[in-house]
UniProtKB/TrEMBL annotation:
It comes from the Bacteria. Belongs to the hemerythrin family. It comes from Marinobacter fuscus. Residues 24-278 form the EAL domain. This is Diguanylate phosphodiesterase. Signal peptide: none annotated.
Amino acid sequence: RAKQEAKGGWIYLDAYEQGQHHARQMVLAGIRRGLEDGEFRLYFQPKVNMHTGEVAGAEALIRWQHPEEGLLVPGRFLPQVEHHQLNIQLGEWVLQQALKQMSAWDKEGMVLNVGVNISAVHLQSDDFTSRLSMILSQYPQITPSRLDLEILETAALADLDKAVQVIKDCRALGVTFSLDDFGTGYSSLSYLQRLPVDTLKVDQSFVAGVEGNDENLLILKGVIGLSRAFGKTVIAEGVETVTQGQALLALGCEYAQGYAMSPPIPASQLPVWVSNWQPFPEWRELRPGDIT
Ligand code: C2E
Ligand code: MG
Ligand code: MG
Ligand code: MG
C-alpha cells in the first residue's frame, strides 16, 4: 500500500488510487520539465468583427509540444494541474509569453489585441493583481487595454465577491475581461449585473444550434439580447460556417471566432493569416441585429 500526505496526516491508498496518484505525479513532473525545456507553445485564433470585417484580436491557446506524444491540446494536461501550484506557474508563463509575442508583432507592424485564458485558481490566487501589474510593467509599450483576460463563468461563481474585487483591481490597471463559455454556467441575471466584464463569449454549444429552430436558437437569442441589454460586447465562439455567422450577426452578435475564419495557429503564421484575410461578403451586407 502507498501512503499519501493528506490534511491532518497520512492516508492509505488502494491499488487503483495508487495508480491514479502515480499517473498524476508523472504528468506533473512532465509539465515541470516541459516548462524548463521550453516545450509549451501559444497558438492564436483570430477574432473578427463580422460586420466591418476587421480583425478584432486573437485568443492565445496553450499547446504542449510533447517530445514523445506530439502536440497536446490543453484538455490533455490542464485538468491535472487544476489545484496545483503548477497551474499558476503555467498561467504566468502564458501571460508573459502572450505579452512577449504582442511586443514582437508590434515591432513587425502588426498591432493586435490578445485574449488570455485565466484559470479560477490563478485569478483567485493572493497576489494575482500585483503580479499581473509587474508583468505588464515589463512591457511599457503595450497599452494594458490590449490585453483581455478570459475567465470562465464557473470560475467567477466559486467566490463571487473575491472575483468581483480582483476584476475591479485588474481593470484599474487597464486590462479588460471576457466571460468565457457564457451560457454553460449557472449565472443568474443579478450575478451577470455584478460581474464587471466587458465581453460575453457565447459558448460554441449554442452556436452549433443557430441554424436549427430548436431550443438552442432560443437560448442564443436570449443570451445575445441579454448581453446587449447589459451593454456588453458579444462574441460567438466555435463559428464553423459562414451561414452560422450570418445568423449570429442577424441576431445582434457582431464578433466571431471559429474554424470558419481559422483554427488556432502557431504565432509565426498569424501575420500571414491577417494579411490574407478577406471578410465574407455575406456578412458585410448585414447590419448587426437586422432581424431582432
Ligand atoms: P476556450 O477558451 O473556450 O477556447 C475555445 C476552444 O474551442 C479552443 O480549444 C479552440 O481550439 C476551440 N475552437 C475554436 N474554434 C472552434 C470551432 O470553430 N469549432 C470547434 N469545435 N472548436 C473550436 P482548445 O485550444 O483545445 O482549448 C480548450 C480550453 O482550454 C479553452 O477553451 C480554455 O478554457 C482552456 N485553455 C486553453 N489555453 C489556456 C491557457 O493558456 N490557460 C488556461 N487557464 N486555460 C486555457
Ligand atoms: Mg477562451
Ligand atoms: Mg470558450
Ligand atoms: Mg471552452
